[in-house]
Design goal:
With 321 residues, the protein is α/β, with parallel strands linked by helices. 52% of the residues lie in helices and 13% in strands. The longest helix is centred in the last third of the chain and has 23 residues. It binds guanosine-5'-diphosphate and magnesium ion.
């Protein structure tokens, strides 16, 4: 991504489809998301056009183990939001299948009930090759949805990897989805996800043991976070508990408010880390070896060596890129 040029000059060259994006038109939205996802030159124009127009949409993250029913529940929740006259964007993040896109296809199929509805726009994101790329793309796609006038942006992620935790963290309201009898899977969810939950859901409440799982989850959450987090039971398949879930999310949303600043802060951290990481990867092994030899020979300690590397990286960064 290039350093933005002077913004007064930029506004003169904005193509006509950008106002259409801000007006929420679907074709422009699709084009903007594709640009942002692929980090093309057009993405720069999009990101400039949406600046200053963020903070309308409430971002709701659904996270949890694969198979818990997140996609099905998101689809049911989106249906409930539509009944409430909200227009919705959905970002489905699936880093587990960067090549085949198999699970992404599954998500698309589950959400096809909204395919003909102009009030719903669904986008699946595949994993980027590099660390941090996924959460960066997700944050930008959320921004595009936000600026295009979506009332709610729903983000579905699997709560296992670092990128997914970062994505969950940029949501305004976080819903952690579990299935009955998955006590051990709750443990398997990346530590930290349970702690950041605003709402805990036991989905598939049409199956046995949902009640017991809800009690276990409530106990586990109280023990870990020390605060009372609502635990709801839903059946995404049958639709039960979904209006109550929407109510709970709305109540938390009224309390927490949309927070585009947290998203932007994350993006900043992400970009800085990405640049430093790349500069470090570009540093010749021989230069690191000089320092490593110094440490081994006792000429300098490893802390000092690490600061020397940081100085080197910072001075090696291009002044603008
Ligand atoms: N019995 C039951 N099955 C469900 C429910 N919600 C989802 N499923 C099923 O669970 C499987 C995984 O659902 P999916 O939404 O893809 O889970 P995800 O991996 O968390 O997104 C699918 O076969 C769904 O039909 C539910 O409320 N009850
Ligand atoms: Mg899914």
């Amino acid at each position: 991504m290039q350093k933005p040029a002077d913004s007064a000059a930029d506004s003169a060259i904005l193509p006509d489809w950008l106002p259409a994006l801000l007006a929420g038109e679907r074709a422009a939205l699709a084009r903007a998301i594709t640009a942002v996802e692929n980090e093309t030159d057009e993405a720069r124009l999009v990101l400039q056009a949406i600046r200053g127009r963020l903070g309308n949409a409430l971002v709701v993250g659904f996270t949890g183990a694969p198979g818990a029913g997140k996609s099905t529940l998101v689809s049911a929740y989106v249906g409930e939001l539509r009944r409430r006259q909200q227009n919705v964007g959905v970002v489905a993040v699936d880093p587990s299948s960067p090549l085949t896109g198999g699970a992404i296809l599954g998500d698309r199929i589950r959400m096809t009930q909204h395919a003909a509805d102009p009030g719903v726009f669904i986008r699946s994101l595949a994993s980027r090759g590099h660390l941090g790329g996924l959460s960066r793309t997700a944050a930008r796609v959320i921004d595009v949805f936000d600026a295009s006038g979506r009332d709610v942006v729903v983000v579905e992620t699997v709560g296992t990897g670092q990128s997914e935790v970062e994505i969950a963290e940029i949501a305004d309201v976080r819903v952690v989805v579990n299935a009955p009898g998955l006590g051990d899977d709750v443990q398997a969810i990346k530590a930290g996800i349970l702690e950041i939950a605003d709402v805990l859901v036991v989905n598939k409440s049409d199956l046995p043991f949902a009640e017991r799982s809800a009690r276990q989850l409530a106990a586990m959450s109280a023990q870990r976070s020390g605060t009372a987090v609502p635990v709801l039971q839903t059946s995404a398949l049958q639709g039960s508990g979904v209006p109550e879930l929407a109510d709970a999310i709305a109540a938390i949303g009224r309390r927490k408010r949309p927070d585009p600043r947290a998203r932007t802060r994350r993006l900043l951290q992400n970009l800085v880390l990405d640049r430093l990481r790349r500069a470090l990867a570009d540093l010749p092994a021989s230069e690191l070896d000089v320092l490593a030899d110094g440490v081994l020979a006792g000429r300098l300690d490893i802390e000092t060596a690490s600061w020397q590397i940081i100085d080197k990286l910072v001075s090696s960064l291009p002044k603008q890129k």
